Amino acid sequence: MAPNGNLNKESSIRDLIDQKKQKRSISNFSERSIPVVLFLFAAVSILTTIGILYTLLSETISFFQEISIVDFFTGTVLKPLSQNPEFGVLPLINGTIISSLIAMLVAGPIGIMTAVYLSEYATDKVRRILKPILEVLAGIPTIVYGFFAFTFVTPVLENIIPSLGATNILSPGIVMGVMIIPMIASLSEDAMTSVPNAMREGALALGATKLETTFRVVIPAALSGIIASFVLGISRAIGETMIVTIASGSSKNFTFDVTQSMQTMTAYIVEVSGGEAPAGSTIYYSLYAVAMTLFVFTLIMNLLARYISRKFREEY
Questions:
Q1: CB contact at 8 A, 226 and 312
Q2: DSSP state of 82
Q3: CA nearest to 99, candidates 243, 226, 230
Q4: Contact (CB, 8 A) for 177 and 203
Q5: For residue 304, what are the CA distances in angstroms to 111, 224, 232, 299?
Q6: Hey, which bits of 52-142 come out as E strands?
Q7: With a threshold of 0.70, does the pTM exceed it?
Q8: CA 298, 241, 91 angle in degrees (round to 5)?
Q9: CA distances, 205 to each of 5, 140, 209, 210 (Å)
Q10: Number of H helices and number of E strands within the chain?
């Protein structure tokens, strides 16, 4: 009986060893495959970016084979549907920059003051109330903002500025500023909150007031995050579509009068892609040339935000 018992024990040990080998092989396979799967997920964004660049570049090159690149970037007249079409992009760039500047003039001071209040002055109870309100403001669809600018803000401004047109760049610029307030306020508040309390306590111990501590210690220490929030806010304003499409109109004026109607690059893309341009025509290709210009604008703003964050970042 003893030899049979030993054989049974040896066979059971072999079975256990085989099972462990199988489990180990499965585990090793999963460990080797997981990085590959994660890399494929990470590569989706890279491949998407490459696809977008390829599409924009290929169609933009087709456009510049028909229209001079110098005329495109220096022309002040944009008449894509006339008998003698002209494709100067400066009116669109001008409208985009002016609307973004108006937005930042509204969002900058309000956003930074909101961040100062939430970070330095608000109690926990007030902060718990105001933060969700800001998040709701950020979640409103932009088309709602567009109709709000057209049906409410513009009539109010007409009572103040009689020369204001029914469609103008001032109204959508102001509403865009309201839209990006949560972005600037939230990012700036996070940057201020990350400043160590020891710096605040040291300033107060030296006799500084709460206001002096905020503007001479906290804000300079959080400057990189604040500037980055401003740059990202400008980038968001540059890429806004529905607000300017609804409230600014489609007049391709090269003017600096904010009471007049202007068109931004995004609004032009919406207009051209609405079906008026047959595929393969010059105006069709101009859509991609303007989109490429807009892509370069937003890319520069994002690179600038990254550079500023690294340049002025404080390590605590």
A1: no
A2: S
A3: 243
A4: no
A5: 20, 11, 9, 8
A6: 78-79, 86-87
A7: yes
A8: 75
A9: 82, 44, 10, 11
A10: 14, 2
Please state, in angstroms and rounded to a whole number, the distance separating the CA atoms of residues 86 and 71: 9
Report the Cα 212 to chain-centroid distance in Å.
32
Whole-number Å distance between alpha carbons of 89 and 312? 35
Residue 298 CA: distances (Å) to CA of 21, 60, 188, 250: 54, 17, 20, 22
Q: Which of 215, 239, 219, 217 is closest to 227 using CA atoms?
A: 219
- Domain-by-domain residue ranges, the chain? 2-66, 78-311
pLDDT per position as a tens digit, 51-93: 888 888 888 888 888 888 888 888 888 888 777 888 888 999 9
Cα torsion 11, 16, 17, 18: sign:
positive
Q: What's the CATH fold of domain 78-311?
A: MetI-like fold (1.10.3720)
How far apart, in whole angstroms, are the C-alpha atoms of residue 176 and residue 172?
6
Query: Quick check: 266 and 245 in contact, CB under 8 A?
Result: yes
Beta bridge partners of 79: 86
SS3 62: helix
Q: Six-digit token pair at 234?
A: 């400008």
Q: Which residues have CB under 8 Å from 95's CB, separation 6+?
A: 169, 244, 248, 253, 262, 263, 264, 265, 267
Residue 86's φ and ψ, nearest 5 degrees, are -125, 140
Neighbours of 188 (CB within 10 A): 29
Predicted confidence band of residue 5 (pLDDT cuts 50, 70, 90): low
Q: Are 221 and 198 in contact (CB under 8 A)?
A: no
What ranges make up the beta strands (E) of the chain? 78-79, 86-87
Binned at pLDDT 50, 70 and 90, residue 314 comes out as low
Report the alpha-carbon distance of residue 108 to residue 114 in Å, rounded. 10
